[in-house]
Prior knowledge:
Layout: E1 5-10, E2 16-19, H1 21-31, E3 36-41, E4 47-53, H2 57-70, H3 84-93, E5 96-102, E6 105-106, E7 112-118, E8 124-133
Bound molecules: zinc ion (ZN).
Amino acid sequence: MSSYNILEVRSSSRAQMIDITEQVRQLVADAGIREGVCYLYVPHTTAAVIINENADPTVVQDILEQLEKMVPWQGGYAHTEGNAAAHIKASILGASQTILIGSGRLVLGAWQGIFLCEFDGPRQRKVFVKIIAG
Ligand code: ZN
């Protein structure tokens, strides 16, 4: 039995941002703590986890489109597996996030949500969620 939770996330396209805010909120609620920290980590080299706006879906669209312009799928890369762009995008955005827990809830801004960012899908992904009281 591991000391952290694992969220299973299924992506459906090559590049995609999947809102996992509610699943993380539920884990925090289930933990039953008032104050602490929620640590999120993706154990993947071509996926990332970020916090950004989940109210207007054009924000997600713009992030994905601009990342594609910055790091196009076909780019004359050295990595022969064919997914170098996905490795680079995942590195830019990062594999972890830390969110405070206050009054038993995730402390997120009004417009903030948590996204698993897929860059080499579709695939089955995992998000490790460690909830620490304190
Ligand atoms: Zn690769």
